[in-house]
Structures are given as C-alpha cells and as structure tokens.
Amino acid sequence: MNIALVTCESLAQYAAPNVDDEDSLLTRYLREQGHHVETRVWSNPAVDWHRYDAVVLKSPWDYFDRVAEFYAWLDRLEAEGVALLNPTAVVRWNADKKYLLEMEKAGVRIVPTHWLERGRPVEVQELFAGLGHDELVVKPAVSGGAKNTFVLTRHETAIRQPQLAELLQHEDFLVQPFQPQIQEEGEWSLVYLGGEFSHCVLKTPKSGDFRVQHYLGGGIEPREAPAHLRQAADAIVQQFAPGCLYARVDGLDQDGELLLMELELIEPFLYLASSEGALARYEQALRKMVKE
Predict the structure, then answer these.
(1) Is the distance from CB of 53 to CB of 5 less than 8 angstroms?
(2) Distances from the Cα of 74 to the Cα of 47, 57, 92, angstroms
(3) What superfamily in CATH does domain 114-177 come from?
(4) Are the CB atoms for 272 and 285 separated by under 8 Å?
(5) Has domain 2-94 been given CATH number 3.40.50.20?
(6) pLDDT tens across 187-242, in order?
(7) 65 vs 29, more confident
(8) Which fold has domain 99-109+181-273?
C-alpha cells in the first residue's frame, strides 16, 4: 500500500526519554512489511491526498490550536472523496469533548462534568458548589496534550477567576471534580485496532502532578486489562468507534466500574512499543480496512 501518515509541523515538544518515537517506529515497521510510507503534514496545502491508498491520522498534534483550519481540511477531504482513517465524521465528532454528553446519555459512566460556554460569565464559587468538590480540573472542550488544563482549588478563586474569564473569551471549557485516584492508582488506557482489543497500559503522573502524559513525566506500565474494564471498553468501541482503525479508551477503575475520562479517536499515542505484536496487529487492521 501507498500510505500517508498524517502528522503536524513539529513533534519536538512531545518527545520524552521514557517512550519510543512511535511515528518512526510505525513507519519503519510498515516499510519492512513492503508498504510505501510517507509522513505528511495535514496543514500543507501542497499535499495531494489522492495519491495514497490510505491516509492515516497519526499525530496531528496541533489541530486543537488551529481547529477551524482542521475542520476545513476535513471538509475538503470529504468533498474530494479522500477516505481518512479514522473517518472524518468520527474525527469531527470526537474533536469536541461535548461528545461525552452523548455517551453519558447512552448510559456510559463519565466523570461528572459542568460545561462552560465561550463568552458567558462564570462564577467560580458556583462551580465548587455545583460539583460538590473543593478541587476541580478545568480543561478546554477542544484540546490535547493538557493544553490550558489546570487544577482549581477554593483558595485560588480570586486568582483563577480572571484567568478563566479570559480563557472563556476564546473557547468553551469543561470543569470536572479532581480525581485523586489518578495520583493514587493511575489511569487505564485500553487500545483497540480495527475494532478489536489490542493491549492495555496503566498511566501514572509524576509526583505532585495530575497529568499522565508521558512527555510531562508520566509513567507507562503495560498491564493486563481487568476483565470488567475490558468489557465496558469493548462496548464503548463497538458503539462509538465504527469503522475506526484505532481507538483508545481512557478511564479509571472506580467502584468496580469503568469511569470514562476520554475516548481518543483522533491522534492518540497508542503505546505500540509496549505490547508484543501490536505493530503487526496495526498493520493487519490497516490492510483489512483498505481492502474493504
């Protein structure tokens, strides 16, 4: 196959000594299987996407900084009949974390969430009262890489209120109760390839932090997926990730149930180096989807 791995202009800020360069790892493996692979920047207007048998979103890790441009790119691919993996409709839906509301209405257990709309006033004290917690996590509705994500405590209200008001001039945000379990036990990531379960890791933040991203010092440990989490994640992928080459279900094990943090369908790190055979399963899923 002639494959385009879609990336962004620079991945340097996401490099970390504790993980392999997944883009290079995947590119090398696919080439070893006889495929022609080129990395292509999604925002480069000179790229002829029609040249490829498969256009695979791998690491467009600046899309949330240029979301209007990214949506326009998706529209262009769709209008020109270029098939994207994951599909453009799924990517567009998954880009805004309001998708969590749809999942909650469908019966998926998510972290309790309060939505803050762009341009509307917010009273921070009301957020504490409404969510019933003294520590809250604030994050943009369209974001990645922990951008503009921070913990809000009651004693910081006077400082954070103007900051949050300024951020809300530009985009929607969501607020959730801080989950100490992330620091105590970690966050589970279950990875699916071609709709089938592939492997699982447990992510832990560095001491004193709550963000589990590896390039922020978080730890990654390959683990056997607990059966009850696997069952819940299987159902989520089947219902909400149709036609997807890859999916990553992130959540906590709370009271013996999966508490969903995010369903990652755009550009997740897939921890392909953490599981023997994961690269082969990726290639097999890709080959199958292109043939279909």
Answers:
(1) no
(2) 14, 11, 8
(3) ATP-grasp fold, A domain (3.30.1490.20)
(4) no
(5) yes
(6) 999 999 999 999 999 998 755 544 445 554 468 899 999 999 999 999 999 999 99
(7) 29
(8) D-amino Acid Aminotransferase; Chain A, domain 1 (3.30.470)
